[in-house]
Structure to design on (335 residues):
């Protein structure tokens, strides 16, 4: 019997690892779809019970889908800026993967880990940079959320002390985030990072992660693009909620009042409490809407939040179909 060579053994191990990874991936995706379908039952019952303006609901769903697509494009910008080729179709495909798994992971950001792993599998020598791009993308996304949450400070009046405090807190945190981002853009090249290589075992990886996080140095256009796109994402989500309110109820809180409540509630949903933030988002929206001085009679923020959740689930299921179809999937991320 012929003894296999080292190359053959290595090749078999690589095939075995790939098979195991694909099995895990398909299992997680199948479990994700099953979870989402089970979670959507109550959402569907509440949704069906309401009289609706279908034009507004259709427009709201358009805003929800658009928000996701803009976020995928933002991530593609970051990955490409790190010198990793990633096509738009591949970015959308992997973005949908993250969206799908965010619905079943603890908090609403866990799916990013799976997206990072899947994207890293496609790059040869820049796996660390791809993982860093996901971390940076999440950070700038949170900055955009804080910026949108602080808008109410200037446009909304007669709010409760709690909402005012939340808005000013968001304004201060977003200010710190913006200053940090601008400092990285202007002075990032002067930040000493070589000492990170001295860490035992993982020093080189830590250095590459930190280096990738300096992606904005000398790139003012990239800073503007990611900030504007991040704010656009959460603006779309907030307008979607306002349209849902208008579609389901004859009298609703104003657009400005939605901007005072929806972004902070979405920030609360990122906390690692429940899978996909299920329940946390709805409770946060209901609680913050009750802080409004004049909540219209008959208006239910819970029904609005439940319908919004249903739309998020629909996008996740569309993402599952898109991902399983293999459309946009290539061996090399640049193709």
């Amino acid at each position: 019997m012929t003894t296999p060579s080292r190359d053959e053994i290595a090749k078999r191990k690589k095939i075995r690892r790939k098979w195991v990874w694909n099995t895990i991936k398909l299992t997680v995706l199948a479990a994700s779809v099953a979870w989402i379908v089970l979670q959507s039952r109550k959402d569907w019952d509440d949704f069906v019970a309401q009289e609706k303006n279908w034009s507004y609901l259709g427009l709201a769903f358009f805003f929800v889908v658009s928000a996701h697509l803009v976020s995928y494009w933002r991530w593609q910008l970051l990955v490409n800026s790190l010198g990793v080729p990633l096509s738009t179709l591949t970015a959308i495909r992997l973005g949908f993967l993250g969206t799908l798994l965010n619905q079943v992971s603890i908090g609403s950001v866990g799916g990013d880990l799976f997206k990072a792993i899947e994207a890293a599998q496609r790059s040869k020598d820049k796996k660390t940079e791809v993982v860093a791009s996901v971390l940076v993308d999440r950070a700038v996304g949170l900055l955009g959320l804080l910026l949108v949450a602080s808008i109410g400070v200037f446009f909304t009046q007669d709010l409760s002390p709690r909402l005012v405090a939340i808005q000013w807190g968001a304004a201060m945190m977003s200010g710190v985030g913006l200053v940090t981002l601008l400092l990285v853009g202007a002075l990032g090249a002067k930040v000493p990072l070589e000492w990170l290589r001295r860490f035992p075992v993982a020093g080189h990886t830590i250095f590459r992660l930190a280096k990738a996080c300096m992606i904005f140095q000398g790139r003012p256009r990239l800073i503007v693009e990611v900030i504007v796109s991040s704010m656009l994402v959460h603006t779309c989500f907030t307008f979607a909620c306002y349209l849902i309110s208008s579609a389901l109820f004859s009298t609703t809180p104003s657009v400005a009042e939605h901007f005072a409540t929806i972004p902070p509630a979405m920030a609360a949903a990122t906390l690692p409490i429940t899978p996909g933030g299920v329940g946390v988002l709805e409770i946060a929206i209901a609680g913050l809407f009750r802080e409004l001085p004049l909540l219209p009679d008959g208006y239910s923020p819970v029904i609005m939040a439940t319908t919004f959740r249903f739309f998020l689930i629909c996008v996740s299921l569309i993402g599952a179909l898109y991902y399983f179809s293999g459309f946009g999937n290539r061996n090399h991320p640049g193709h």
User: Anything to note?
Assistant: Residues 6-49 form the longest helix (44 residues). The chain has twelve helices and no strands. Residues 64-325 form one domain. The chain has one domain: 64-325.
